[in-house]
Amino acid sequence: MAPRANWKGFLRLSLVTCPVALYPATSDTEKVSFNQINRKTGHRIKYLKVDAETGDEVTSEDIVKGYKVDTDTYIEVTKDELDDIALDSTHTIEIDEFVPKADIDNRYLIRPYYLVPDGKVGHDAYAVIRETIRSMDKVAIGRVVLTNREHIIALEPLENGLMGTLLRYPYEVRSEKEYFDDIQDVKLTRDMLDLAKHIVEKKSGAFEPELFEDHYETALIDLINKKRSGMPITAKAAPKTGGNVISLMDALKKSIANEKDAAPAAKVARDTDKETAKDTKAKKPKKRVEGQREMLLPISGKGGKDAAAKAATTPKKAADKPVRAPARAKKVG
Question: Which three-class secondary structure string do you get for 40-57?
């Protein structure tokens, strides 16, 4: 199924306009998720919307928005009233200004989106806006309405398209001063810094996200597969501690010693992962690629003995290293 856009409208730079669609650039749908169930019956828990005073269930058509002004006192706001104050950015991303990317504080970044032409028309205007932003080596700042709220969006070229990143407003970003004021101003010796730099140099490398592995997700999949197979679940042994370190200098020296011991094995592991990643890229992708859920053992019927028997005959290697799936669109809100 083709992804569904979170938003459709127009991108406008002065008098240059083109129809566009906005798609989320990231997805959490491939992660293992859980439902809440009744331990006694095994049935899924259902949530009802009830009146806080009467306890009666309330239908969707009787539920409206309300702003709390006092205890048990709300100002009711209807959908029509919200529609009446709709902003131009509800249907148009108006580019207001261009700023250097380095000027955008990372704390203001929320989430990335892909902005693409919508339909067969407007590709020329889209390309003009994209290449203008690219040639200026800046980021375009505009506004867009998602989930009934206006957001600031920063647009920048990404290959032959545009990536838009939602930004926070200043009132949403807390000042660091209330957290950092109590940090002590300590003096470090040159030897300490040299040892720390040596550790950093040993751990330095290129940013290769394809080598990242979600260890907790892998452990979840392994746990679920074991339970489906009827295998016993043993408690994990407590991790071994490195012992007490007398001083910071001793900790730095011990870290360097540990890095020297771990370096050969780590290099072999990285090289293996890189070769695996290259082989994966070289292979022709399947028409439909599954993600983490593909690593879960199959189950037939409503579970029980049939599922356990079938799962027991399935190779366990599926849970060793999950395969990442491409992001799928999910409706915002």
Answer: CCCCECCCCCECCCCCCE
Mean pLDDT of 56-83: 90
What is the chain's mean pLDDT, rounded? Answer: 80
Measured CA distances, 191 to 35, 187, 229, 252 (Å): 53, 12, 55, 10
**105 or 189: whose pLDDT is higher?**
105
Token pair belonging to 43: 């049935």
- Tokens encoding 72: 């048990």
8 A C-beta contact, residue 277 and residue 321? no
Q: Is the pLDDT of residue 309 over 50?
A: no
Q: What is the mean pLDDT of residues 136-148?
A: 90
Residue 322: left if φ>0, alpha if ψ -120 to 50, beta else—which one?
beta
DSSP string across 96-155? EEEE-GGGS-GGGEEEEEEEEE-SSS-HHHHHHHHHHHHHHT-EEEEEEEETTEEEEEEE
- Does residue 245 register a pLDDT over 90? no
- % of the chain residues with pLDDT over 70: 74
- Write out the DSSP string of 259-326: HHHHHHHHHHHHHHHHHHHHHHHHSPPPSS---GGGGSPP--TTSTHHHHHHHHTS-GGGGTSPPP--
